[in-house]
Each structure stands twice: as C-alpha cells, then as structure tokens.
Design a protein that fits this description.
Rossmann fold; five-stranded parallel β-sheet; 5 strands; about 15% strand
Length: about 210
C-alpha cells in the first residue's frame, strides 16, 4: 500500500512538513510507503470554471504549465492521501487551495476517483486559525466520499520557526495517533475489499435554490 502526502506550505521543510513526517513515520512503521510532494511553492493558478474537464472526462485539467495532472495521477494510484497546510489568515495556503480546487474537481467528475480512499488533513499554525484551516481541508475529503481517520484531538500542531512544531508535545502525539489510526483504517479497507461489497455509487444530484 502507498500513501501520498501533499505539502501545501511554501517552506519545503517547515512545520507542515514535520507534521506530515510524524504521521508518515507511523504509516511506514506499518509497511505503508509514503511519498511527500511539495505543492506549496509551485506556480499554480486556480480553477477558472471552464468546465472542460467535465466535457473531456479524461482525468485531466486543461490548464497548462504546471504539475497538477501529474499529481492527480499520483493521487489516483495512492491508497491514502494526507493534505497538509500552514495557516494563512485563518485559512489554508493560497497555492494549496488552487491545487485542491482543480485536483478534487477533476477527480470528482471522473467517476469519483478518490471515493473510499483514506484521507486525512493536518495543519501547522503559529497560534490561532488552525481549526478553520483544518475544516477547509476536510471539505475536500468529505465531498469525495473519502474515509477519514481521526486522532485524539483536532489535527493541528503549533510552531513558528521550521522545526518548532516537534516541541509541541500534544501536537506530536496528535499526529502520531493519527498515523496509527490511518494505517489501521487503510489496512481495514484493503483487507475488506474482497469480503465486503462497497455501497453502489449514486449519481450526483444538484439542486439550485433559485428557480
């Protein structure tokens, strides 16, 4: 099994990275290979609502010049996905949002490519705003019908300078417990595939409130 971690911080080895590494260490301990891709410092434009991905349904975004489609392919191949972001103005980083908007839209309209994969969110913050950012990340997982492991508190770790987060004892424990629970859930899913029939995917229905 394989997990893919997406580092949405501009700092390649900042506190978001350290949070991801704590989770990943538990996955690796259970034999789950984990790869980290660094999205946060790339030049990624946001979704332009052209809807060409709906028209084409080829598992790709039509916007050129970046690595979004490559990362979508890696997400498809992974059994588990970790979304990690710093906190900017009580929200996730802007580049991370641009990536997630495009990637999750493409995966959702292509037969729910991430459906029933295991997905977790982690957030690194100096002081406040961690929970709103954590909620934002979870929105993508929920919309995609992913399976979300939990920890013993919200998945937020604190620190200012790169590496300070590892001094947050409670935050470190949160990430460690999350990694253990994520590995367990991934194994449950993998071992249950041949024994339990998953629920049939329903066609998405849209209701507009203005008629």
């Amino acid at each position: 099994m394989k997990a893919l971690a997406i580092n949405g911080s501009p700092n390649k080895e900042g506190n978001t990275y350290h949070a991801i590494k704590i989770v990943a260490a538990e996955l690796e301990r259970e034999g789950i290979k984990t790869e980290i891709i660094h999205v946060g410092k790339k030049n990624i434009r946001g979704c332009i609502a052209c809807y060409e991905c709906i028209k084409n349904k080829n598992e790709q975004c039509v916007l050129p010049g970046d690595e979004v489609n490559e990362w979508i392919r890696e997400m498809k191949q992974a059994d588990g996905i970790i979304l990690g972001s710093p906190v900017h103005y009580a929200a996730m980083g802007g580049t991370m949002k641009s990536f997630l908007d495009r990637a999750f839209f493409v995966t959702s309209i292509n037969n729910g490519m991430l459906r029933h994969k295991v997905g977790a969110s982690v957030v690194a913050v100096r002081r406040s705003g961690g929970l709103p950012a954590f909620d934002q990340l979870n929105n993508y997982l929920c919309y995609s019908e992913m399976l979300i492991p939990t920890s013993n508190y919200w998945n937020v770790i604190h620190g200012l300078m790169p590496g300070e987060a590892v001094k947050d004892e409670e935050g470190v424990q949160i990430m460690r417990v999350l990694g253990k629970n994520m590995a367990w859930l991934m194994k449950l899913v993998e071992n249950g595939k041949s024994k339990i029939t998953p629920p049939e995917k329903e066609e998405k229905r849209f209701t507009n409130f203005i008629r």
